[in-house]
Amino acid sequence: MSDQHHSHGLPFWRKYIFSVDHKVIGIQYGISGLLFLLFGFCLMMLMRWQLAYPGQPLPVLGNLFSEKFMVGGIMLPEFYNQLGAMHGTIMVFLGVVPLAVGGFGNYFVPLQIGAPDMAFPKLNMMSFWVFFLGGVSMVASFFVPGGAAQSGWTSYPPLSDIATTGQTVWLIGMVFLITSSLLGSVNFIVTIVQLRADGLSFFRLPFFVWAQFVTSFLLLLAFPPLEAAGVLQLMDRVAGTSFFLPSGLVVAGKALTVSGGGNPLLWQHLFWFLAHPEVYVLILPAMGIVAEIVACNTRKPIYGYKSMVYSIVFLGFMSFIVWAHHMFLTGMGSKMSAFFQITTMIISIPSVIILTALALSLWGGSIRFTTPMLFATAFLPMFGIGGLTGLPLGLTASDIPLHDTYYVIGHFHYVVAPGTIFALFAGIYHWYPKVTGRKMSEILGKIHFFFSLIFINGVFMPMFIMGLAGVSRRLYDPMQYAHAQPTQPLNVFISICAWSLGLAQIPFILNFFGSLIWGKKVDRNPWESTTLEWAAPSPPPHGNFDTVPQVYRGPYEYSVPGQKHDFWPQDMAKEN
Amino acid sequence: MSDNLIRYISKPHPVTGVTNAKLGIWCFLASEVMLFGGLFSAYVLLRTGAPLWPRGSEILNVPLATLNTIILITSSVTMVMAWASLAMKEFSKYKRYMGMTILLALAFLVVKAFEYGHKFEHHHFPSTNTFYAIYFTLTGLHGLHIVGGVVVNTYFLFPGSRMWEHDPEQFMGRIECAGLYWHFVDLVWIFLFPVLYLL
Amino acid sequence: MEHSTEEIKKHVKVYIAVFAALAFLTVVTVAISYLHLPIFQAILVALVIATIKGSLVACFFMHLISEKQIIFSVLLLTVVFFAALLLLPVFTSGHPHVA
């Protein structure tokens, strides 16, 4: 209790490095997340060269890479595989989740519930630094002999069991990241349950908080089996066990001298038990952010708030029992595949309810087409495409030809890239004034938006066609296969769009840093929003609020008849 | 500077009826259930897929493990007695019971070291077969959890116990949470023991 | 948590009783294992006894028997997912058997 007041007089390293303030930690996660997103994006841009021009030396940049990775500027297949595995790992575990949950969640959940901080500030600080260690491990893995992990972000054995040292470093990195997530999720759950301001009942919570709440349960209960699996794979690699190695395995003509008796599918079950809920971890905070921005920029309450809440809770629950739809090709028999098809079809219902409610929220609204609103609105059809293209993958019969093709890559990228990442951009533009006290430039924002929207569709739409043509994912050289050759022009097109998408991020980067100095200064509530974070100063001080907040109404009281203003803040006692 | 402090550290929330730490530790234990669940799931999948699987009693030392079971159950009693002593405001009794809990935990680890040593002497390693692999991994992870508990309990016996002087309520809450963790470690063993040693 | 010394003394009596029950059940479960029952029965008996022991620890040492609703909700959710994790993978593999 005595710790809580002493922000002044703290030395630099305790105020900014090992801070226990959720806002500092949120910014630490946010900046780290953005840097890792950029790094993961660069890995992909490298891959796209090899895919567009297989076997051709990469001009200029190719000479910067050591012989381990590129010979004469030509990418080695091992390096391509490292790029692929690490692109996925970094984007999911070091980019999106730290930004969406660690960044936005940490910063805004306490503010939106009227709390002075998270329930366990020291634990929060430890979560960040354990995450940081995980990130360092992952990046460092490129520099160990044999390079980084190269068995896909899914690390399937037996390949991952016999892979080079980088895989062991990946596993250690994952243990750090999982631990960080677990500690963080405990913090979020306790904070949301216990520290809501007086008057803030569960059904008066902003949808963003509900999204973070459900996400935290997914992280809490789904991650540990992957931690267990990670331990088992470490045992296989380091202690010579055969958890995942079947008997009689022959590698490069020689029988492996291990005990055998293991099961590669054991890894798949434990991995996907986490990885399926993980994809909902990727999307739920994004839906939360979109809901906040849509309500604020339509000057209307969210349509169907209660349905959305019930849907998101149901979605969270269902996400634990669909995982084997990633394993339809493993020979599970028709009864079990029927079970997983049914649960997978059922889980699409709450998703559709949420998306429809958000879309209907636009109807009759007084829409302000600011940059955050553009990104948030674009999220809706983009996530729609992502979700709809998932349906054939959730049904065994149609999954059989599509599994492990570019169709899958197109599907999940639509959900995460023009889906979640657009929502995260929306959140940055929307909440930047609260964090910095300044607005970002609308002009640069709109340039960023339009070019990103165009090029991101250019990258991922053709992948559905390639997948339907039977082109496998994780191919180093598409020209090897006759059936992949006709779609090679699409590969060139995609790569050009991908590099252009990279260039389209420059206005964002300039805007993000430039606005810190030149952005228009704002006060507490520049968007005239209703939720509690806008009642605090911009940026909020240690302890967040001048006085302990009291909540009188729901989160989206916009355009209430009889009021002078078109918004009625949650904590305002009198009329507005 | 606001007067807005983090609430429900020592006093329970009026609606949920629990303190932050109590809810937090139960959430953490829920995640631990899933962690050991992952390993038990591995055990089930490996055993049901194996053409042959030894009975635990043929390979492992049942009397020694039974002793360890009794040791751990006793340590659970001493742990809850440590908390009860604080509830009755008897600090020196708390120290005695906490000390006993730690010693019993160390005894458990010594017995375990003996067991492992014996296996290694006879060239039985995790790499020998999947039975040994899952045996060493499950008991090893459980053992690491015991070590963690020893560290936490030792902290609360020595430097951490100073909190009793200025905030007895929060200290009692912390010991209750440490106790919950400790009982959970006992609970895992209650299932580990028959599954590995007796079946 | 406010507890009077009288209440705690009653709790202590319960703790001792639970300890005795746990010790007894440990002996029972080991003794039954010497009967070398067929594997399915052996599993069932061992798990039933373990569940009883575990419930005693949870209900009395961990005070679950008097705990609040919110804790039960978290645990119930956990139990459901634990069951899914333990059972569904086995059902997806053909011909599970216990050797």
Explain what this protein looks like in three dimensions.
- The complex is a heterotrimer of chains A (576), B (199) and C (99).
- Chain A has 576 residues and is mainly α.
- Chain A has one domain (19-245, 261-535): Cytochrome c oxidase-like, subunit I domain (Cytochrome C Oxidase, Chain A).
- Helices cover 61% and strands 1% of the residues of chain A.
- Chain A has 16 helices and 4 strands.
- Chain A has a two-stranded antiparallel sheet with strand order 1-2. Chain A has a two-stranded antiparallel sheet with strand order 3-4.
- Chain B is mostly helical.
- With 99 residues, chain C is an all-alpha fold.
- Helix content of chain C is 77%, strand content 0%.
- In chain C, helix 1 (5-33) packs antiparallel against helix 2.
- Chain C starts with a helix and ends in a 7-residue tail after the last helix.
- Chains B and C meet through helix 1, helix 3 and helix 7 of B and helix 1, helix 2 and helix 3 of C.
Largest sheet of chain C: none
Query: Can you give the helix content of chain C as a percent range?
Result: over 70%
Low-confidence stretches of chain A: none
The structure class of chain C reads mainly alpha
CATH evolutionary superfamily of chain A:
Cytochrome c oxidase-like, subunit I domain
What kind of sheet is the major sheet of chain A? 2 strands, antiparallel
- N- and C-termini, Cα separation of chain C: 50 Å
Q: What is the helix content of chain A?
A: 55-70%
Count of separate structural domains of chain C: 1
Strand proportion of chain C, as a percent range, falls in under 5%
How much strand of chain A?
under 5%
What is the 3D form of chain A?
Answer: globular
Task: Write the element-wise H/E pattern of chain A from the N-terminal end onward.
Answer: HHEEHHHHHEEHHHHHHHHH
Strand arrangement in the largest pleated sheet of chain A: 1-2
Number of DSSP-assigned strands of chain A: 4
Oligomer: heterotrimer
